[in-house]
Amino acid sequence: MRIYPKNWNSKFYFILFITAFFGFLLPGEVDAQLTLQVRVNRLYACIGDCDGSFVNSGPSEPRWFYEARDFPDYDGSGFQGGNYQEPSSNSCGWRNRNTTFFSSSYQCNAPTNIQFQWEAYENDFVGNDAATGNQGLFNFPVNYAASQNGVWQTMNLASVAVNDNDCSINPGTWDIEIAIRWTGSLQTPPVQNNICTAAGQPALATNGTVYTFSNLCATVESGEVDASPGNISPSRTTWHHFVAPPTGHVIVSTDHGGTTFDTEIAIYHQTGTICGAPNWGALAEVGANDDIVVLINRRSRVELECLVPGDTYWIQMDGDDATDQGNYQVNVTNQGGPPLPTNDAICNAINLGTLNFGGNIGSNTFSNLCATTQPGEPNPSAFAPNQTVWFNFTTGATVGTEVLLAASNDPLNRGDQIDLQVALYTSSNGNCSGAMSEVGSDYFTPPFAEDLTVNCLLPNTTYWVQIDGSGLNTEGYFGLAITDNGIARASNDDICNAVNLGTVALSQTIANNGMNNFCATTQPGEPAYPGCLVGINQTVWAQFTTGSSLGYEMTFTSTSDPLNIGDNLDLKIGVYTSSNGLCSGTLTALDCSYLPDAPGFWTGENLT
User: Fold this and answer.
1) Are residues 364 and 420 both part of a single domain?
2) 20 to 30 A from 312, CA-CA: which of 131, 218, 247, 552?
3) Are residues 604 and 496 in the same domain?
4) CA–CA gap between residue 82 and residue 64 (Å, rounded)
5) 227 and 169 housed in the same domain
6) What element of type H or E holds 497?
7) Under 8 Å CB-to-CB from 14, ≥6 apart: which residues?
8) Distance in angstroms (rounded) separating the CA atoms of residues 574 and 556
9) Domain-ending residue, one of 484, 516, 547
10) What is the 3-state secondary structure (H, E, C) of 238-287?
11) 10 phi and psi, to 5 degrees?
């Protein structure tokens, strides 16, 4: 009987063959490859008759079965081999064969050993037909460094003792000699395989340029990041980097005709030093994608917003599993629009310049897109901050009575509205590092625009503007205009700056209808006439001189808004003399008048 090799399973080999075959058809895998071959150089046997039976007209016809496999089995082909019969011969000696029976090709990794097993038997169809002994594996190391490309390297003999009961007449040893040859070379992993070598490559442009690369024979680095985690499950990763554009808005895509396999991508923000050794902790994930449309479009696409302009971002490129490798195309496309704001932090506030008397500063080109709030950021009385941006301006030497801060919602119709909130501050040291004191704040909706009017800003002072969006529409485009009303504030706030009305003589009237008490204060020690002037607030002063001849009665009339400018007040009057006729003298109260007006009925005040 014939004894064939153990575990010969044709179905099993068929499955392996199909898998390997389709593996070699992966698009893009047409680069370098190494082919490893095994052949039988020669065989030795003393045949004669092994079991004492001469059937088939003569001496035994020896038959050998031998097979080999690579180890590690990178190509999945398992054992390859054959069944060979020698012509009839009773002589002892070598039989030259030179038959190649194993051949496999590799792209990324080559086996370090060939495992070889064989058996021999008498082929006369009598008894067990066995002359084999041990079928165990012989292991032959493949020394690529010590051997030459394309040259057969003869291995040591593999011997089987023929001494079992079925071959008792002519026991002995049968030998087989094999040789191994390799040709070609393995594919070199791409330079982008390691993040620290990829760092030396040019950054990808963000103008949509499509780049072609390969992850053929790429590997995974020790400790390499896994997005989210598990979204990528790295198997054959490559790395690319780009610098975020001013808009902070890009799309990263492998959805191009030159992408030949099922891709996965993850994007990371570089927050620290990546190399010497890879510092994976310096990568913060900002997005990842496997399939654009599951089972339909297996390429990858990630849209990213709020990237930090000028910062470096990394693309981790991979296939769905280790079999997904080859050529791919990738691009990074800036989605356009205005740049992201750089004034998210108060110390990066946009300087709007100097606000002069009657002047206007500002622009319609601002946004708070992707803004945040800082730890410890001032919390104004009118709203709670959400996504703030900051501005500052400095008042000139002369400031009007009112300043209007007008924040306009999407003035250029860019399509992203914002429900605006406005606050104004001064700093304890004039810089962003000082303690902020609120001057005023405002929020009311609708409309989404917001105005804040503040009075009596100090000259030559830096002010800080906080712009925010409410929870209704937190971020968007806006304009900011700051306007000085150009109305001169009271110059006669102090008694020594009193307006001189001139000299009043008998039957004469002196007057000035252009006065106001805008931004006036009270001086330390300023007199308050007992009874009617208690609780003085914003006083201004005028003076006059009496002529040489006077009547017995004099009338003082104060009129609210005589020129109909549109700002009334509830007036009070007090009259004094000075001990030395100057502002520095001791004041003596003569008389005063105050009758409270009803709101909307500003009748002024008369004192006789």
Assistant:
1) yes
2) 218
3) yes
4) 8
5) no
6) none
7) none
8) 10
9) 484
10) EEEEEECCCCCCEEEECCCCCCCCCEEEEEEEECCCCCCCCCHHHEEEEE
11) -65, -35
